[in-house]
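*Target chain*
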Amino acid sequence: MESHIERFGHMDGQPLVSLVVLNCNGAGWLPKCFETIKTQTILGQIETIMVDNNSNDDSVAVARRLLADFPCARIVRNSANLGFCEGNNSGARAANGRYLFFLNNDTWMEADCMERLIAGTEELGAVASTPYVVNYPDNSYQDFGFFGFDLFGLPSPSSPVTASREIFIPGGCSYLVRADVFNQVGMFDANFFIYSDDADLSWRLWIAGYKAAGVVPARLHHRGAAGVNPAGGIATVEFRTTDKKRFLTNRNCILTLLKNGQHILLLPIIPLIALLFLESLVGSLLLRRWSFVKTTFLDVLRDCWRLRGHIAQQRKMVATFRKHSDFWMLRFFRLKLNRWFEIKRLFQFGRPRVDV
């Protein structure tokens, strides 16, 4: 893999935070995203890095124009689409900030977001955090990370709150983490490619003895799923997914437990596999094609087996920095099921559209 780096501006000393904006054919989202970075109250302490995953639109040209007068910015151009995980890792390797802020391109920040986010994170004694995420066109609630995990080992959804607090998993669309800790626990797992990467990283952070938080006064607007669900522009208007997304999500949920569970927290893998089989079977009946079961269940188990050597290596790595046992991690168990979110979307948008 080859990466080419272009630099804009210069900063004396270490930046407080490096904003890593991952992009692949998202030129239309970049102006709003970068314009609101430029309005940040601590812009002079921000290094902005746009990572381009081999776009075939005019993303790089747009980024050059927008970043030309930033006080400190870089464009990292990858020669292939490395996915969310390794794409963001390539941005992190080029970064100099004390903190890393992984930011989706379909976002925009209120002017004091970064200042409040970092201050709130440090006040709570955390090393990772997320802002309070609202919808792209308005201030209606969208997300505040995940508060724990359910009986299947899946992230248990958050709910609207009025005060900053510790959370189990900061959301991947806007994930702040201290750079030294990110490197210590192994960065994002490149084998995940995309999806459940925020959960896997957060498991490792907590296992290593660190804390994650959600900071309410820091506000960020997010479209969400702009790549796989583009209809509606800045607003989501349908429930849409793909076979590949379901494959990656299902596989990575299993991998997260296999990598990070010590003993008792390997047990949720059993009901999780049963749940994924049931979902794939129901989906296949609704879609009237057997290939959905093959892709979203059988291929998932096959690929987990293929990655058994990687899983073993990752478990050894986690053991080197483990400070919290499975029994300690049980404090994050929640009754609220991960799938309530998808049930709500069914009522809101109706039957999902699944693209092959």
